[in-house]
Amino acid sequence: MKPFDYSRLDSPDALSPLGAGKFLAGGTNLIDLMKHEIETPDALVDVTRAGMKEISQQPDGSIRIGSQITNTDLAANSDVRQNYPVLSEALLWGATQQLRNKATTGGNFLQRTRCQYFYDTARACNKRDPGSGCDAMKGLNRFHAILGASSSCIAVHPSDMAVAMAALDAEVLTRKVDGVERRIPASELHRLPGDAPERDHVLENGELIMAVDLPASPPRLQSYRKIRDRSSYAFAVVSAAVALDLDDGRMSNVRIALGGVAHKPWRASRAETALEGQMPSREMFLKAMKEEMSEAQGHGHNDFKIDLLPRVVAGVLRDLTAPERNGDRT
Amino acid sequence: MHAMHPLRITVNGQEHRADIDPRRSLLDFARDSLNLTGPKKGCDHGQCGACTMIVNGRRINSCLSLAVSHEGDEVTTIEGLAEGSDLSALQRAFVEHDAFQCGFCTPGQICSATALLDELKEGLPSVVSSPDKLAEMDEEIRERMSGNLCRCGAYNNIVAAISSVAGDKS
């Protein structure tokens, strides 16, 4: 590991350009990347003792989650389990208990891709080494993107949590080094690779995630489904976070976010629009997803995702809208 | 120049002070500086769980944590579980159920399982739990122990050992 300076942030108010460095929270991904010398920061600023550890209800009914809340504590929170179950489920589908105990809400968003060519410093990777090429494109790309990729990068964002956050219309609250705060929709925090895949997200250098807001009155029916290669501790091949209401039997407030398929959690807005106001049926689910997948592109090993994904989403929608389940959840 | 950093940390009830290289993992600090060689360096990347320690009541992968970030923390390693020569209930259960072969992963398995029992008491959910109740205990244990690999494949006996102490809480 390359040497670095270590300092601790006592409070977000103490952020300053002079103290700039890479933020260290749970470190479960960052320290791993530093061991591989894929991340080589000159300085680490430990933010785990800077507060931001509350989950609180806001006056407008929204829930504010401090960025240093661990994945374990967020998944176990009673408000989250009751009103935002898709978020609790997504967190519990991820990683292991040891990792969830360390990983934080802010850090989970900012974890980096697990593309094996990004991790292998002997291979070409535009994300790790801009301009070097992409060995995934013609390599073993079973886990790679089918939506929104570019000729420079087909990596996917690995988070489960961020997919649920996107489906819940969560907003990320940040503070820049100059003290200016801003709110970023969770589904717009990450970017598509384009010709700059080295940039995972839209945050500026030194911009700190302070908290995440979950809007009040989320859709009542929610579920997260993850397809993975072993029954625990594996990243998603594909995943889907779905939230909706049923209004006289018709689907409303439909939100679908997809994981394991793009450089960011993918809001399936075409499918959402196609389903809004419709009666639930398998034909309708598949038709909506077909629309969503109209520009999907496989790269060989991952072609199967184009067929798999609509079926996964249709399965979640079927289970959520089945009358027996709906009756159970009053 | 990158400075050494002061650290005050309590491990198995004993306070330690040291000046350390910020790069040092909690695992390396315990093994090399404190001579606590129970926690093992298996993969050193958070994938195998052989390095599992309990920090402030929560199990973590000590290989993925910088020692310097544990200022003031209370750490328990496998060496801290027995009371003198009296093994903990889980340690006895691992012996009774023959829950290991080579033993390399065992310190991590037992630390992990020790924290698991507390998590069950606390009511922490797992992905196999229903909203209001646990799954069958063996299924909960298998899911909740997925961060600890055993290359000898002693999994059946590991589950039996933990289950014998956890009882039937489902």
Largest sheet of chain B: 5 strands, mixed
What is the CATH first-level class name of the largest domain in chain B? Mainly Alpha
What's the number of structural domains of chain A?
Answer: 2
In the sheet with the most strands of chain B, the strands line up as: 2-1-5-3-4
CATH overall fold name of the largest domain in chain A: Uridine Diphospho-n-acetylenolpyruvylglucosamine Reductase, domain 3
In one word, what is the shape of chain B?
A: globular
Radius of gyration of chain A: 20 Å
Number of domains of chain B: 2
Considering residues with a beta carbon less than 8 A from a beta carbon on another chain, report the largest interface and each chain's count. A-B, 35 and 38 residues
What is the CATH class designation of the largest domain in chain A? Alpha Beta
Number of strands of chain A: 12
Quaternary state of the chains: heterodimer
**Biggest sheet: strand arrangement of chain A:** 4-5-8-6-7
Find the structural class of chain B using helix and strand composition.
alpha+beta
Q: Helical element count of chain A?
A: 12
Strand content of chain A: 15-25%
Q: What is the residue-averaged pLDDT of chain B? A: 96
Cα(first) to Cα(last) distance of chain A is 54 Å
Report the count of strand segments of chain B: 5
The number of helical runs of chain B is: 5
CATH homologous superfamily designation of the largest domain in chain B: [2Fe-2S]-binding domain
